[in-house]
Specification:
Number of domains: 1
Order of helices and strands: HH
Structural class: mainly alpha
Radius of gyration: 24 Å
Number of helices: 2
Number of strands: 0
Helix content: over 70%
Largest sheet: none
Distance between the termini: 46 Å
Shape: rod-shaped
Strand content: under 5%
Protein backbone atom coordinates (compact mmCIF):
# COMPACT_ATOMS: atom_id res chain seq x y z
CA UNK A 1 0.00 0.00 0.00
CA UNK A 2 2.80 2.42 0.90
CA UNK A 3 4.65 1.58 -2.32
CA UNK A 4 1.51 2.37 -4.34
CA UNK A 5 1.06 5.73 -2.60
CA UNK A 6 4.70 6.62 -3.21
CA UNK A 7 4.41 5.66 -6.87
CA UNK A 8 1.31 7.82 -7.35
CA UNK A 9 2.90 10.74 -5.48
CA UNK A 10 6.05 10.44 -7.61
CA UNK A 11 4.00 10.40 -10.81
CA UNK A 12 2.02 13.47 -9.77
CA UNK A 13 5.18 15.33 -8.74
CA UNK A 14 6.83 14.48 -12.06
CA UNK A 15 3.81 15.79 -13.97
CA UNK A 16 3.85 18.99 -11.93
CA UNK A 17 7.55 19.62 -12.55
CA UNK A 18 7.13 18.91 -16.25
CA UNK A 19 4.22 21.34 -16.47
CA UNK A 20 6.16 24.06 -14.68
CA UNK A 21 9.12 23.63 -17.02
CA UNK A 22 6.89 23.86 -20.09
CA UNK A 23 5.26 26.99 -18.70
CA UNK A 24 8.65 28.59 -18.09
CA UNK A 25 9.91 27.73 -21.58
CA UNK A 26 6.76 29.09 -23.23
CA UNK A 27 7.06 32.33 -21.27
CA UNK A 28 10.71 32.69 -22.25
CA UNK A 29 9.84 32.12 -25.91
CA UNK A 30 7.18 34.82 -25.77
CA UNK A 31 9.65 37.25 -24.21
CA UNK A 32 12.21 36.54 -26.91
CA UNK A 33 9.60 37.06 -29.64
CA UNK A 34 8.27 40.46 -27.74
CA UNK A 35 12.05 41.73 -28.02
CA UNK A 36 12.13 40.99 -31.75
CA UNK A 37 8.76 42.67 -32.26
CA UNK A 38 9.92 45.79 -30.40
CA UNK A 39 13.12 45.94 -32.44
CA UNK A 40 11.11 45.60 -35.67
CA UNK A 41 8.69 48.34 -34.64
CA UNK A 42 11.58 50.66 -33.79
CA UNK A 43 13.29 49.93 -37.12
CA UNK A 44 10.08 50.61 -39.04
CA UNK A 45 9.50 53.87 -37.21
CA UNK A 46 13.08 54.99 -37.86
CA UNK A 47 12.76 54.13 -41.54
CA UNK A 48 9.54 56.09 -41.99
CA UNK A 49 11.06 59.05 -40.11
CA UNK A 50 13.42 59.53 -43.06
CA UNK A 51 10.47 61.03 -44.98
CA UNK A 52 10.39 63.94 -42.50
CA UNK A 53 13.95 65.10 -43.17
CA UNK A 54 14.20 68.87 -43.40
CA UNK A 55 17.66 69.14 -44.98
CA UNK A 56 20.54 66.89 -46.10
CA UNK A 57 22.17 66.91 -42.65
CA UNK A 58 18.93 65.91 -40.99
CA UNK A 59 18.40 63.26 -43.67
CA UNK A 60 21.83 61.77 -42.96
CA UNK A 61 21.15 61.68 -39.21
CA UNK A 62 17.80 59.95 -39.77
CA UNK A 63 19.42 57.51 -42.21
CA UNK A 64 22.10 56.62 -39.66
CA UNK A 65 19.42 56.10 -36.99
CA UNK A 66 17.51 53.79 -39.34
CA UNK A 67 20.66 51.79 -40.08
CA UNK A 68 21.40 51.45 -36.36
CA UNK A 69 17.90 50.21 -35.59
CA UNK A 70 18.15 47.81 -38.53
CA UNK A 71 21.35 46.36 -37.08
CA UNK A 72 19.67 46.00 -33.70
CA UNK A 73 16.74 44.17 -35.33
CA UNK A 74 19.10 41.76 -37.07
CA UNK A 75 20.93 41.07 -33.78
CA UNK A 76 17.66 40.40 -31.94
CA UNK A 77 16.40 38.10 -34.67
CA UNK A 78 19.70 36.21 -34.74
CA UNK A 79 19.61 35.83 -30.95
CA UNK A 80 16.06 34.51 -31.17
CA UNK A 81 16.80 32.07 -33.98
CA UNK A 82 20.10 30.74 -32.63
CA UNK A 83 19.53 27.47 -30.73
Amino acid sequence: MLATLLAVAGTLLGALVSGLLQHHLARAARAESQAVRDAATTAITATYAIRDATDPTHLDALRQAALTTHDHLVEEAARHLTP
